[in-house]
Target: DNA processing protein
Amino acid sequence: MSGEELAAWLRLLLTPGVGTDSARKLLAAFGLPEAIFGQTSSALEAVTGSQRAQALLTEPEELPAALQRLQDWLAAGPDRHVLTLADKRFPAELLEMADPPLMLYVLGDVNALHHPQRLAIVGSRNPTPQGQANARQFALALSQTGVCIVSGLALGVDGAAHEGALEGGSPTIAVVGTGLDRVYPKRHLNLAHRIAAQGAIVSEYPLGTPPLAAHFPQRNRLIAGLSQGTLVVEAAVQSGSLITARLAAEQGREVFAIPGSIHAPQSKGCHALIRQGAKLVESANDILEDLRLPTSPPLPFDTPASAQEDTLLEALGHDPVSLDALQARTGLDTATLQARLLELELEGHVGRLPGGLLQRIGRS
Model:
């Protein structure tokens, strides 16, 4: 794409008041953006109204700086790409959406966007230890069969899903709500570098765009759109993950949900999805079978616990429990109980929840 073409696309994107809906009408009427900006005021008004027509005739003040920043970013390496609606590399699934982005910025392997098997894994930013483990283990098992995991790089379930996908060896795609010259959250900087090396990071937002709250629900439609199905690991009733699931269902994609404890707020969103028709899943093979993909051998369990630890794990059950309740169940003194719980926690069998609660962590 020439500098003039890139400038025209960027100008269309930056023009105030011209959203994706108006932009698509203009593209349908006049062709590529360069042709749009060659039209008369009356021709533009006939398509998009007088206010937007006047805005289109005025070059945005920030365009020169934004264009230079984008060209510098693209020149920094062969793993940087800008895909427009007219680019044959633009994902076909996104073109089917009601509001596809005008431009996609991609850091990494652009071919990951065309991987034949893609599944979104989304969920709470504050998952339980079990939810964190489920996200990583499901992603690992699915990635080992060749599935590309799509998620949002957020804390919690998203990060665990990307980690499992990287460990499994298949590409993973992170769809973010900032410009690609920023990483949010900052603690995922190293993770973002590894994703770009083994897959791709994708954004519809221009370079320099900060992490604005309104952008994250918006980017969820791309997570759903890029995937053949969406797995919700844990989600509260008001979670943004339910937005992703709803968008996936509206686009005719499969929705999967992992059930959890009836006492955990993070499970209530998944239970609501299951009541609405989402498929209840207990293993990665449930998803693979539904999508008609080759199934995977079950992941190995950790080294078995000792007999004493087995007894303590049985007392824990699978619902959150307080230390006092666990002590009443086992009859152990506080010091002994705390020591054994610490050993189980270090081995990954037990996790701690807010409010001093404990939870047994099973293996998916």
Q: What stands out?
A: Residues 349 and 361 are 5 Å apart (CA to CA). DSSP finds 17 helices and eleven strands in the chain. The chain has three domains: 1-64, 111-290, 307-360.
